[in-house]
Amino acid sequence: MFNNFSDLAAKQLDGGTLTREEALAILHSTDDQLLDVVSAAARLRRAHFANTVKVNYLVNLKSGLCPEDCTYCSQRLGSAAQILKYTWLKPEEAAEQAATGIRAGASRVCLVASGKGPTDRDVDRVAGMVEGLKDEHPQVEVCACLGILKDGQADRLKSAGVDAYNHNLNTSESNYADICTTHEYADRVRTVEHAKGAGLSPCSGLIVGMGESDEELIDAVFALRDLDADSIPVNFLMPFEGTPLEGTWLLTPAHCLRILALVRFACPDTELRMAGGREMHLRSLQPLALQVANSLFLGDYLTSEGQAAKADLEMIADNGFVVLGADGAAVPAEEKHDGGAAAPVSAPASAAADLDDPATIPVTIRRRGAGTQLAPNA
What we know:
Blueprint: H1 5-13, H2 20-27, H3 34-49, E1 52-62, H4 91-103, E2 108-113, H5 120-136, E3 141-145, H6 153-160, E4 164-166, H7 185-197, E5 201-203, E6 206-208, H8 214-227, E7 231-236, H9 253-266, E8 271-274, H10 278-281, H11 286-289, E9 295-297, H12 309-318, E10 322-324, E11 330-332
Parallel strand pairs: 1-2, 1-9, 1-10, 2-3, 3-4, 4-5, 6-7, 7-8, 8-9
Antiparallel strand pairs: 10-11
Helix pairs in contact: 1-3, 3-9, 4-5, 5-6
């Protein structure tokens, strides 16, 4: 067992592999040890990613109307969440949404569609969007997230210019049946393997705060390590009203930091993204989380609002980081926003809530950007 977290970081820098005992020590660290944990994880982040932050931008191509029953999801079968619901965006609408994120500094655009998985016609539709997007922005990475893939679909996406494919494991194999019954954990692993086999960069991550035990969380993180994901988004549960996990608040800002540190220690050289729910759960510790994570989503998420894109870029710059450009060059974050009028942005949900009672913090439903006539948050 290590003597302190700095020693553990040194071990990782020397090529060590995080053990289960060490992982538990990170999750069970005290508040007095929290800055030590963050500092040690930051050594790994700086060693592999220097002071850069990769900015990603989501485009929700098709919202709601999903036949799957994932308990955490606002788009699930039977969801009463009052989210935007629409079928496929037109190619020109998708291109316009993507261009907004690119202008704001995103070097990767993530094209997402609800559903169990795409038909071959859906794949052709997305392939056409990607080909058009690459013609206009050849330097920008495109990540597709369309659900469970069938044979040959990953190859079709790759040939169209898709760079990466996202399909999250979400939780451990032992916990999976508790959050979804309409498909299996093995289906998700198989899809990531399909993507890898086609030459797509595998992006796969987690949703934390769903009631998983520490052991189950470690199982999930180690499974991602074994899967050799190139990027790992960590989502913090947003308990949408009208879903089975409505009112579930099991995370604190400090524990969110510990979870990010666990992933960093387990996968030191992997892109680690603080993803959905960071504003609600990390709150004022978001800047500290950038010392551990090296990637984030700019602006809004699929069905919920994020904080103002300008505020994200200011947070990056204020903390001494730079945006990783599409060409691999670092760009000062303050240069990535033109200072013009931004889309109306509501105050962070936590601002008007009683933080002694997290269940009073509402999830702010997205009402702008894709699927609406309003400008996106970017």
